[in-house]
Amino acid sequence: MSGPYADLVAAHGLSHAHRLVLAAVPDGTRVLDVGCSTGYLAAELTARDCRVVGVEGDPEAAAEARERCDLVIVGDVEDPVVRDELPRDMDVVLLADVLEHLRDPWEVLAALRDTLAPGGCAVASVPNIGHWTARRALARGRFPYADHGLFDRTHLRFFTRASARELAQRAGFAVEREEPATASLPLEAYLRRRLGGTEHDPPRALAAARRGLTALRPELFAFQFVFTLRPR
Length: 232
Fold this sequence. Notes:
By secondary structure, this protein is α/β, with parallel strands linked by helices. The protein has eleven helices and seven strands.
């Protein structure tokens, strides 16, 4: 789960979903960063006086993450033996672009409740397979596997807004807050050619249109959903 995502961040910077995830984590908290990759989120959190413990299955990525985390545990979070090594006093469990890669995200999310201190929360981002680009591809009879994005070939689970909320509830959490992450709109590439800007830094008018349409129809226009979850 580390290579393509770390490369994307290196090439383009943090995504809108990344920024929403980071904004949901209070300064100075104890954070368990599950699937921490090379520690690109941990670096941002450490700069805000957070104490970050990472969990990462890729030893090479974990080695780099150690420079940005207080501690990195190398292993698969789906392995109960690895989960037994996790601390039990965390303020935040961070699951950024992780749950869709798991065989049983319901079990893992439920088990991670045990790592939270009283009053703690989980912050999770999941891609929205109901996004208009995915619907368009399916309507054309296509499922275009790719190295990243909605059709990432390493995704084992696919979520809509409703099924992501159901995942949280089945794992024993209540959804405290939900934020939709925006992405390109229909005809945006054409409009950018006329107005300028890039997909990651669109003109102000396009950015406002993204926000407005995503707020109006999140199931259709949100590329990802970012949830703040509290144990029930």
